[in-house]
Amino acid sequence: MNTSSMPQQKALSEELRTLLDDPRGHRVRDDAETVRAFSRDFGPKHDDALPRAVVFAESVGDVQAVAAYAHQRRLPLIARGAGTGVSGAVNATDGCIVLSLERMNRITEIRVDDEVAVVEPGVINGDLGDAVAPYGLMYAPDPASYRQSTIGGNVATNAGGLRCAKYGVTRDSVLALDVVLADGALIRTGRDTFKGVAGYDLTSLFVGSEGTLGIVVGVTVRLRYLSTSQESISALFPTIADAAAAVLEMGRRRVQPAITEFLDAGTMEVIDASFGTRLAERGGALLLVRTDGFGAEAEAGVVRAALSDGGGQVSEPGDEFAARLIEMRRASRGDTQDDDYRVGEDVAVPRSRLVSYIHHLSEIATRHEVRLRVVAHAGDGNLHPTFWVSPDGGEEALGRLNAALDDSVRGALEAGGTITGEHGIGQFKRRWLSWEQGDRVVELQRQIKHVFDPHGILNPGKAIV
Amino acid sequence: MNTSSMPQQKALSEELRTLLDDPRGHRVRDDAETVRAFSRDFGPKHDDALPRAVVFAESVGDVQAVAAYAHQRRLPLIARGAGTGVSGAVNATDGCIVLSLERMNRITEIRVDDEVAVVEPGVINGDLGDAVAPYGLMYAPDPASYRQSTIGGNVATNAGGLRCAKYGVTRDSVLALDVVLADGALIRTGRDTFKGVAGYDLTSLFVGSEGTLGIVVGVTVRLRYLSTSQESISALFPTIADAAAAVLEMGRRRVQPAITEFLDAGTMEVIDASFGTRLAERGGALLLVRTDGFGAEAEAGVVRAALSDGGGQVSEPGDEFAARLIEMRRASRGDTQDDDYRVGEDVAVPRSRLVSYIHHLSEIATRHEVRLRVVAHAGDGNLHPTFWVSPDGGEEALGRLNAALDDSVRGALEAGGTITGEHGIGQFKRRWLSWEQGDRVVELQRQIKHVFDPHGILNPGKAIV
């Protein structure tokens, strides 16, 4: 085998085709359109780096062969799912190979009585949900991108979603992983049972590691019961403070909704524009709540009372519009693809700090003269403020935007929160990671990275600092 | 500072007393009674190793000082909570210092609106539950030892309990950890928010690592809502197979009890002997089920129907005896302290394999002429078979007992299960760990251990191989 460390573009693709027995280039592509399309995720990209080749893996063997090749040649290797992330975690870096796992999209097993499924990494989140629904089961993690994003990508970012406060995040549903290590070796972590404590929790270590420790090629997930009854409630409040206070009041009444979404006036305007609703003229903040399970109706009653006592205009029992609003909220993601001038943030704060933090965000927006709207998974304190400026403002406007972002992240940390609730560090949040983590934690993570990937080929420059 | 690597017993205690400014020996003890009492956990101990000193830490600073000292002198250091484990995880090894965290037992903070508590490691599990109950909150993980065991010990073993199927294990309730590393440095992992994905999940790595990666000195936990309504159901079945089938049938009806305990005839006899009940004469297996939350009553109705359809003699709604039976089951642990001739196992299998696996256990007991009884957290497939032989049988009987244990563990793995559901590897399960884990996983764990503890001082010979 040729051991030159940096083969030319064509030579590299040819080598990969030979390696994968793919003479016609079905799995190894290097045309301009493909390399551009696979050079980034849904967020902004600040450079022109392109992959030297894109490999569409169709088997575990493909992944092992490409990893071993990249390991030997010291070539950066970026595994990706559907690329729906927004933190730059799969953005191409100089000289990299991109490894797409989209074609590994089989649901390998659904074990109904065990309430477990085994999937390849390229399975779309919503497709798994559809496949298990006839059995009365669900795959709980439901990022807003659930109709596009893959389970493998969800694992890489430890994706959250709307139902997390009740059903947990991706990590809480992952029992076992098949992982290809940097050198091409295949390992299995975790177990097929709900409980198990043998050895260190390598499964959780891989979940959320953004492809920097290994490449997930198989995921064993725990399924939950699909509720046959659910109640959706909407409540419009005069002010943001009223709505945030109502979230705490629901908690004080010890009811755990499956979904608790907070939308400010700006977010209501987006929904109004997309769906022809007229929400924004009716109030300053909107809460959308869903209860489910055997207690759905009783819980909904408690929720409605709490929201009404808190000054909300609350939907009537059985109101179908409330349910539709939740679907509109889910679907409202696509309209806000980030670019350099519009950045969707993803911080989390302790729930009791929601009011003061949203107030703080408004101050930041005013101070830096940037626009702001806020949506939040209020049940777990996870906020998505979107800041934007007019592109006409050029560099000066970008400076104000970035200053606002810095302040918003600093504020979240000062409130006892985190710089990322569910989107991950990727490329863009690395600048803030050392604000959250101590030097020794940073150093331990580097050492763990070195254990798994001694040559640093796996998604370099992402996830940790 | 004296750098001799193995100071004599008295010299070592004196040095520790000087180090901790404890001239009277309140915190540093080396008397025979103390070193013997702190040389083991609740399980058997196969050697006479005693600690050279026992340090009762009263502050994070104490822990840091002792760790730094042990690190510098290359002395084995074993941190422990209440010592209620049964896998030998805190058993003394030659030349070790034992570091008890029992005195660090303050509940530092209860943040009601955030549904979070911060505790020192020595807080008793049940004491935290008592402290948060007035707020309508609970700390969900409830190992049978919850009145004796500490949160720190629960974290070290990733303890389970009765409520796991619905509320998760210890890992699922831990948000952040303060950890003293092997060299005495203090780090903080995780975050105070329910969600957060910044960096690698070091929190989960420490949870369940049995004191081999660091010493947990602070735990931030998520609290759950304490249900105001709960329903307890008991059902006696003619055979074990009937009871196990009924567990699956409850699942098929998509009801998620908080507790689902399975007891065989032998376990019923233990309860009968302890509490004067007459369960064993009425059936061959017992299921104890508890539903909670807003849907408790509706769920209990579904449960009763499923159990009755499955041939169970089911308790009436509101039957207080069913609730008392669950408390008897919890309290029945103490009578079975393990010794060389009686070993309580802790395997887990996929739920659909419960029937065949329990049948397999009976075959094993018959083949090796050992006694057997089985209790299981049936909702998550976690079984505790207890095997025993008469001490009169001597070495020959011990040989049969160990052969039965080996077969039971092998059988659990063949059924797709794990060698430990919630007790941990400790000393005793290391002989089976490589049956479950591949060579590369074993090696990765060793490398991770080396990152955190380069001199191998932290609880050597435990948790991994």
UniProtKB/TrEMBL annotation, chains A, B:
Domain FAD-binding PCMH-type positions: 47-226
Enzyme class: oxidoreductase
Record Gene3D superfamilies: 3.30.465.10, 3.30.70.2740, Vanillyl-alcohol Oxidase, Chain A, domain 4 (1.10.45.10)
A GO MF term: FAD binding
Cofactor: FAD
Enzyme Commission number(s): 1.1.3.15
Protein keywords: FAD, Flavoprotein, Oxidoreductase
Annotated PANTHER family: GLYCOLATE OXIDASE SUBUNIT GLCD (PTHR42934:SF2)
Name of the featured protein: Glycolate oxidase
Originating organism: Zhihengliuella flava
